Amino acid sequence: MTRAYVPYSRFHVGAALESTDGTIYDGCNIENSGFSLTNCAERTAFFKAISEGAPLRSFARIVIVSDDPGFTAPCGACRQVMQDLGGPELEIIMANAKDELRILPLRALLPMAFDPSALPGHHPA
User: Which residues are catalytic?
Assistant: First the structure.
């Protein structure tokens, strides 16, 4: 969260993605003046993990923190990336500025998810 680049929103978010072998991949949000090109902390952590060789769906949980007193839930784009790369049982842990936690499986945040099995010619990785 402290490395977030947020000159426009000033909304700092950090994420820590834990693989099933205990490896931690961290991420922060990185903004761009063209807001649609901004990358969230959650996607940064997932893309970092995959680019460093972590196998697909080898993740146990992701922790999402911000300086907001409420809970920062992952956006729709992040939920889709989590579905594809993490799977529906990925544990989502949201922590707020009051040190409170909310823990849910991804399937609770993304019911009826679109996944690669819906694509023609899909072969599981």
Answer: 42
106 phi and psi, to 5 degrees? Answer: -55, -40
pTM, rounded to two decimals: 0.88
| Segment 12-58, tens digit of pLDDT | 999 999 999 999 999 999 999 887 788 999 999 999 999 999 999 99
pLDDT digit string (tens) for 47-85? 999 999 999 999 999 999 998 899 999 999 999 999 999
Burial (CB < 10 A; 0-12, 13-18, 19+), residue 94, is buried
* HEC assignment per residue over 45-105: HHHHHHHCCCCCCCEEEEEEEECCCCCCCCCHHHHHHHHHHCCCCCEEEEECCCCCEEEEE
Quick check: helix, strand or coil at residue 39?
strand
The DSSP call for residue 22 is S
CA distance 125 to 71: 33
- The H or E element that residue 18 is part of is strand 13-19
Whole-number Å distance between alpha carbons of 88 and 18: 15
